[in-house]
User: Fold these one by one.
Assistant:
Number 1:
Amino acid sequence: MTTSATSLDKRLILVDKTIAVHGNRRDALLEILHTAHNVYGFLDKKILLHISEKLRIPPSQVYGVATFYNYFKLKKPGSHSVTFCLGTACYVKGVEEILSALEKEFNVKRGETSSDGKLSLFVTRCVGACAMAPNVIVDDEMIGKATKEVVLERIRKILESERVEA
Amino acid sequence: MSERIVKLIIDGKEIFAKPTDTILKAAIDNGIQIPTLCYLEGLTPHGGCRLCVVEVKGNPKLMTSCTTPVSNNMEIITNSPKLIKYRKQIIELLLAERIHTCSVCIANGSCELQELASKFGVDHTNVSRNWERFELDMSHERFVLDHNRCILCTRCIRVCDEIEGVHTLDIKRRGKDSMIIVDLDEPWSASYSCTSCGKCSAVCPVGAIYVKGKPLSETKRKELPKFITERRRR
Ligand code: SF4
Ligand code: SF4
Ligand code: FES
C-alpha cells in the first residue's frame, strides 16, 4: 500500500512540475491534462480537482475540457483495450456490428470496462485509415478490414493466454 | 484611432451606432427586432443558437447579429425569406434533438422555444427525432435539472459564472453528446460550489432548470442579468 502511495506522489510531482513550467497559466490546461493523463493513464476526479485548484479554473470547466477530447479517459482503463473507429467510412462498413458482438460476448458496454478489469471498449471518430475500413484497434495493434470473427478471436486469445499464465 | 460613431443601414433604415456595438444591439436600440434565443442582455454573447443570423451585404455568409460588431457603411437585412427559412430549420432541429413535448412540460406557456415555434409557425419537424431519454437530476432541494428539455444555450453557465461568480455549471463532451454538468459531473446536491442562488433557473429559456413546486411564470426573470450588470462596478 505504501509503495503505491509513494508512486502516486511521484506522479503528482510530475504533474506539478508541468504546471510550474507553465507558470500556473490557465491556458496551459490542455498541456497539463496531457501530462496527468500520461503519468496516471487516465484522469480521475482527484487529479482534475487538483489541476482546477492549481490553475484557478473552476472544476466544471476543467471537466468540460477533459471530456471534450475523446483521447482522455476519465476512468481507469482495463488491462486490454479495444477501440472502434466510428467515423463515417467504418460506420458504413459495419463496425457497429463488430462492436455489438464484443459488447455481448464480453458483457461490457462501449466506453466502459469489464467488471474483472480486463477489457475496455472505446469508440473514437475517424482514425484516418478509411481505405481499410472498418478499423478496430486492439491494444496497440490496428486491425484493418476487420470482421467480427477476427476481432473476437484475437481478444479471446489474449484473454486466454493471460489465464494460462496466471 | 477608430471612429467614435459608425453609420450603417439596417433594413433600409439609416442608423448610427458605437463601433463596439453588435448588430443586434444597434438593431434593438433602433426598434428593430431580431429573434434570439441564446442571447440574453447582461451576459456575454454566446453565438450558439444561430437564430439571430442576418444578411450582410457583400458577405456570402450569414452572420450572428449577437456577436458581430457593426462597422461603417454596413448594409444589413434582418428579415428575408432565406433568413426565415433558416430560422425555422433551427427551431425544428432544436425541437427534434431532445424531448420537447410541450403539453406535458413544466414550461408550457412560459417557454421561449415554444414561443418562437409558434411565432414561426413550426408545428412539426421534418427531421427525424432523436429523443434519447436522460435521467433528471432532482437531487438539489430546490432545483431540478432536466436534460431532456435542455437546448444547450449556455445561459445558465454564463449567469452562474459571470453574475453569481461561481461557475458551478459547464458542458461536458461535445456534439450531440453535450450535456450540462454540475462541478465534476456530480449530482447537484453534492455540489461544492453552488450557492443555490437560483439564477440559472431564472434565465433558462425552456423547462430544463426550474424551481421545485413553483410555476415557471413566477421564477423566470430574464431581465435579471441586465439589471445586475447595469448596476455593477466595471
Ligand atoms: S443555483 Fe446559482 S450557484 Fe447554483 S448552479 Fe444555479 S446559478 Fe450557479
Ligand atoms: S439548462 Fe436551460 S439555460 Fe442551461 S443550457 Fe440548458 S436550456 Fe440553456
Ligand atoms: S442569439 Fe445570436 S446566436 Fe443565439
Number 2:
Amino acid sequence: MDLELTETQLLLQEAVRSYLEREVPYDRIREQEKAGTSDAVLWKGIVDQGWLGLLFSEENGGAGGSLVDVGLVVEEIARRAAIVPILEVAAVGHVLERCGEDVSDLLAAIQAGEAVPVPAVWEGAGSEGAPSVAVRDGVLRGEKHFVDYGQSATHHVVAALDGLYVVDARTPEVTTTPLRSIGRTPLCHVRYEGVPARRVAGLEASALLVRLGRSLSAVQIVGGLQQALDMTVEYVKVRKQFGVAIGSFQAVRHHAANMAIRVASTRLLAYETLDAIDRGVASDAQAALAKASASRAAPEVTMLAHQLHGGNGVIEENDLYFYTLRAKEQSLAWGSFDECMAVVAGQVHVEPDWF
Amino acid sequence: MEFEWDAEYADFRRELRAFIQDRRTPELLAEYAATYGSGGPLIGAFHRELDERGWMRMCWPVENGGEGRNLLYQYIFVEEMEYYGMPYGNLTYTSIAPSIVAFGSDAQKAEWLPGIYRGEYCFAIGYSEPNAGTDLASLRTRAELDGDEYVINGQKIWTSLADVSTHIWLAVRTDPDARKHAGVSIIVVPTDTPGVTIRPLYTMYGGHTCETFYDDVRVPAANVVGGVNQGWGIVMHALNHERVGLAAVGALARLYDQLVAHLRDRRPEKLEDPVARRRLAELELDIREHRALALRNAWIISRGGTPIAEASMAKISGTELRTRIANVSMDLLGREGGLSVDSGAAAPYEGRAEFNFRLSPIFRFGGGTNEVQRDIVAAAGLGLARG
Ligand SMILES: Cc1cc2nc3c(=O)[nH]c(=O)nc-3n(C[C@H](O)[C@H](O)[C@H](O)COP(=O)(O)OP(=O)(O)OC[C@H]3O[C@@H](n4cnc5c(N)ncnc54)[C@H](O)[C@@H]3O)c2cc1C
C-alpha cells in the first residue's frame, strides 16, 4: 500500500498542470462557454503530449499507464476547468481496451487524435435505469439523453440492450440537439435513426463503463474542488478586513478546514475506486459510493468557497464560478448524490467488511 | 400563545392573492426575469396599480402618505409576492423608503417619497467599497463641505442597480478624525450628477451589479439624511429592513411547490419512491422551521420591537435554505436538474432550481454575512461575550 502518489505520478501531475497553465488561458474558456464549444486546440495538445497513451497497453501502441495515472490527467484538466471530453474518451478507451472485440483500429485512431468517441448511456431524465436502445441487423435506432460532448464527438459508444456499439456520429442518421446547463460544457440529446452500429463489447463492458464513468467523474469533481480550496486559502490570506487577514478569523478557518476535510476524503475514495477497477475488484456499489461522496462534496465545498470570497467570488471576472458550476454539473452526471445513494442502498451490507 | 391570524389579515391575503393571479401574465414574468430587479414598462405599470390600492405604502405613517397599518401586512405582502414570483419593488421600497420615513427631513420626504411610491425613483445602495465589506465602518469615500455643497471623492463596489437608478443612497465619510463609526453620513446623490461613473460587473447568476466612482461629485448639503455624522445608525436601520426581505419565505415555498408539481406531472415514479418522498419531507420540515423564525421576526417588529438575534436567525436560516432547496432539487431530478432556462422546454420549471443555485451565494454573505449573523446570535441572543 502507498497512499501517496509515486515519484513518476508526481512528475506526470506537474507536467500536465504546468502545460495547462501555460496553454489554456481562462479567457479562451470563457469564450467557449458562451459559444457552447469544446477546446479543439487543447485536444490536439493532449494528443501531441501523448497523455491518451496512458490508457492503452504497449501492444496497442500505448504507454500502459494505470487508471490512477489516467485519473491524474482527468483531475488536472478539471482543475483548469478546461472544456475537453477527457473523461468521456478515457472511460470509453479503457473499457474498449479491456473488453473490446477487434477494436485496435479504434484505439489507434483515438491516440492519433482522429477518433474522439464519447459514451451515450442514459435515456431518462436522470442517470439511472438500464438501456432500452436496440440494434437490429447492424442498425441502431433510439434516443440517448444527456450525452456530454455528443455534438463534437466523432463516434458515440452507445449502451444498448445487449452491450456496447460504436456508431459514427457524423452521419446524417445521428441528430444532436444541444442543451444548455449549469456546467457550461457541451451537452446534447441524441436521436439515432437507423445508423449502422458496430458491436464492440458485451453487457459486462456496459457495467464497467458506468463504474469507471462514476469514478472518473468523482476524480474530475475532486480536481475542481481542490482548485476552489486552493483559491480560497490564497484569498483569505490576502483579503483583509478589520485590519487583519480574514484567514485569521476562527469562523473563516473552520470553513476552510471543513472544505479540506471533504476534499481529502473524497479524493481518497475516488482514487481507491479507480485502483480497485484496475485490479478488477470494484463493485457497482463502490463506484456509486465514491461518486456519491464527490457529488455531496461538490456543492458543500464550492458554496463555502463562495462564502469566504464574498462579493468577489460571484463576478464572472473571477475564476471561482468555473469550479462551482462545473462541479455541480459533474455531481449530476453519471448519477447524482440521490441516484448513486440508491445504488449503494440497494447493496447495503448487513455486516459490512469494514477493514 | 395563539397562532391563528386575525380575520383582517386572512382577508387581505385572499384579496392580494386574487389580484396577483389576475395580473400574473407571462409577459410581466418575462420582463421581470430579463431585468433582474431593474424593472421595465410592465413592471412600472404593475407598481402603479399596487400603489393605487395603497399596498406599496400601507405600513407607512399616515402623515407620510401611508395608512399606518401593522407591519404584518407588509410581511404577508412580501410573502405572497415572492411566492408568485412577482416584482414588488426592490430595496428602494423595502429598505430605503422606510429609512427616509424614519430619518428624512420633511423636505426630503416631500421630494423623494412620492417618486418612490409612484415607481419613478430607484435608489441604488452605495455602502460597500473594495476594502470595506464586512468591516463596512472602515469606508473611505470622502465627502467634504464646500459652501452649501458636499464634494464627494472615492469608489464604491456592488452598487447594484446604479446604472438604472435615479439616485444613489451613499454612505460617505464626513469626519475622518472621528472614531470610524462616528464619522459616517448618508447622502443622496442624483445618479446623473457630473463626476459619477458607473461600470457594470457581470455575475455568475446572469444579472449584473456595478462599480461606481465619484470624482469631485458636488451634491447639495441638504441631501444629507438624518444629520451629519449620523449615518451609521441609519445604515443599521436600513440593513435590518433589508434582512427581513432576505429572510422571505415565499420564494422558497414556491421552489418546493414547483419541484413537486414537476415530479407529479413529468416524473410520477419519483413520487412513488419512499426515498424521494423522504427528501421532500425534509425540505418541507426545513421550510416550516424557517417560516416560524421569519414570522416571529416580523411579529416582533409589528409589536414595535427591534429583533436582533431573531432577525439574524431568520436571515441565516432563509439564506442557507435557498441553497439547500436548489441543491436537493437538482439532486432529486438528476441530470435534467442541471438544465438552465436556455434549454427551453427541456429545462424543468424554467431551470428555477439551477438558477437559484447560482444565485444563492449572494444572500449568505450579502446584507451582513452569515458568520457575522452567527456572532450576533451568540452575543445578543445568548449573551456570550466576545473573546
Ligand atoms: C450581487 C451583489 C449585490 C450587492 N449589492 C449591494 C448593494 O446594492 N449595495 C452595497 O452596498 N453592497 C452590496 N453588495 C455587497 C455585499 O453586501 C458584500 O458582499 C457583503 O457585505 C460582504 O462583503 P465582502 O464581499 O467584502 O466580503 P468580506 O467582508 O471580504 O468577507 C469575506 C468572508 O470573510 C468573513 N469575515 C469577514 N470579517 C469577519 C469577522 N470579523 N469574523 C468572521 N468572519 C469574517 C465573512 O463572513 C465572509 O465569509 C452586493 C454584493 C453582491 C455580490
